[in-house]
């Protein structure tokens, strides 16, 4: 028993940014330190993600309550971890996995497990008097990530007639993180002005980006170029673009075709979709495409990587689900060249860090990511710096659940002072 031993673990149900129930875990150590962590939730979830446990009673929050996960924390996890050393994160996460006993965390629920895993790490950092990013990453963690700000929301994240889910602005040419935030936010404001002028609607989607009445990627990217210029910058110089088509959402497994169901009903095989990306990447300064092919379409991923992998960062999200097993398969097949990291896809902090490590050792770039259903918890900002990932996507500049992560990174930038670096991955 030490002052870092876990004395008490509790959990509660709160709301996420979409007004759906989510879980918060609270860990108290012997020395009295208490820390909490909240769990986010996706909409365009990958089918191989760890299971998010929901109660399923349609009469209450449409079945989305997390009472069972809360109970699992209090009745099963708390007694198993009580008295354990919080600084032994791997041991804690191993115990959680043993207690769950399933491959996809369906017994305890990945939401119950992740909440506890993250709260244990935060309590440890706090008890040691260290900033969370420093505790998680050590002395070499000083790279502030380039923000990938999702300013146009389509797909499963809004009612816009757009099949591609995310259009991001990437202020990679900024000299510092805080300047990148300024370049991005100024462009976001210019975009609002343009949307107003053109009567396209300024309503927001789930990640705080606009959800305008536009139905093609060309129209969106042209508008983004105009917004960048209106803000006083040059597309491809200070500000680049990235897309997450989230193509698993519009893949039809029975015919093997991609179908633009939200817009013009166009239907195409992977090879034509890749041609389309290539044309877009020729016309616009697109430096990253995520989930350009669907989660089970490994052939499509191979075409995509062969045709675009030299020129564009190709990020696997639904494809890898932050899981070392799927990433290993990707490495063997030579698909993608980057991975999206979402801790709740895998369910513990240690496994998240293992996946990051595997990616880096195999030359895959790493981007930390929020979920479309977020919380005010800025853990992700610390994790991005801890991993020296160099890239983070956490929405636009218009909702506190998103801006909270950027604001935390601004604080970390200040904390790092001269040791902080920005802009390379
Ligand atoms: C953040 C994303 O969306 P969701 O959280 O809905 O999976 C994504 O697909 O990258
Ligand atoms: Mg995605």
What features would you highlight for this structure?
single chain; 425 residues; Enolase-like, domain 1; TIM Barrel; 2 domains; 8-stranded mixed beta barrel; 3-stranded antiparallel beta sheet; 39% helix; binds phosphoenolpyruvate
Q: What is the end-to-end distance?
A: 41 Å
- How would you classify the helix and strand content by structural class? alpha/beta
Q: Quickly count the helices.
A: 13
Which ligands occur here? phosphoenolpyruvate, magnesium ion
Under CATH, the topology of the largest domain can be stated as TIM Barrel
Strand order of the largest sheet: 5-6-7-11-12-13-14-15
What is the CA-atom radius of gyration, in angstroms? Answer: 21 Å
Major sheet characteristics: 8 strands, mixed, barrel
Strand content: 15-25%
From the 3D coordinates, which CATH architecture of the largest domain would you assign?
Alpha-Beta Barrel
* Poorly predicted runs of 5 or more residues: none
Helix content: 25-40%
> Total domains, how many?
2
């Amino acid at each position: 028993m030490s002052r870092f031993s876990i004395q008490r673990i509790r959990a509660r149900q709160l709301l996420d940014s979409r007004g759906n129930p989510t879980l918060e875990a609270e860990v108290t150590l012997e020395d009295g330190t208490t820390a909490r962590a909240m769990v986010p939730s996706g909409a365009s979830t990958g089918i191989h993600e760890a299971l998010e446990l929901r109660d399923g009673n349609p009469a209450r929050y449409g079945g989305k309550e997390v009472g069972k996960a809360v109970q699992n924390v209090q009745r099963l996890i708390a007694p198993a971890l009580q008295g354990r050393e919080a600084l032994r994160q791997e041991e804690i996460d191993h115990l959680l996995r043993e207690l769950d006993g399933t491959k996809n965390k369906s017994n305890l629920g990945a939401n119950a497990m992740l909440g506890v895993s993250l709260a244990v790490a935060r309590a440890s950092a706090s008890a040691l008097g260290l900033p969370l990013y420093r505790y998680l990453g050590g002395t070499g963690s000083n790279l502030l990530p380039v923000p990938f700000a999702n300013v146009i929301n389509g797909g499963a994240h809004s009612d816009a007639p757009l099949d591609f889910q995310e259009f991001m602005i990437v202020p990679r040419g900024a000299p510092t993180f805080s300047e990148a935030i300024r370049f991005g936010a100024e462009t976001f404001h210019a975009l609002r002005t343009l949307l107003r002028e053109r009567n396209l609607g300024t309503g927001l989607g789930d990640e705080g980006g606009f959800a305008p009445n536009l139905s093609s990627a060309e129209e969106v990217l042209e508008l983004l170029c105009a917004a960048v210029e209106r803000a006083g910058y040059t597309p491809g110089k200070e500000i680049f673009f990235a897309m997450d088509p989230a193509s698993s959402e519009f893949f039809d497994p029975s015919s093997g075709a991609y179908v633009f169901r939200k817009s013009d009903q166009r239907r195409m095989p992977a090879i034509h979709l890749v041609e389309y990306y290539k044309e877009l990447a020729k016309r616009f300064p697109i430096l990253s495409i995520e989930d350009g092919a669907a989660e089970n379409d490994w052939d499509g991923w191979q075409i995509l990587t062969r045709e675009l992998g030299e020129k564009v960062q190709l990020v696997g999200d639904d494809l890898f689900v932050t899981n070392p097993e799927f990433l290993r398969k990707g490495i063997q097949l030579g698909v993608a060249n980057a991975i999206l990291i979402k801790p709740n896809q895998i369910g513990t902090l240690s496994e998240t860090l293992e996946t990051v490590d595997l990616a880096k050792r195999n030359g895959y770039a790493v981007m930390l990511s929020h979920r479309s259903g977020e919380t005010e918890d800025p853990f992700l900002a610390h994790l991005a710096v801890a991993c020296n990932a160099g890239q983070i996507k956490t929405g636009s500049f218009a909702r506190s659940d998103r801006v909270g992560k950027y604001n935390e990174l601004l604080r970390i930038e200040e904390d790092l002072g001269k040791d902080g670096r920005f802009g390379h991955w």
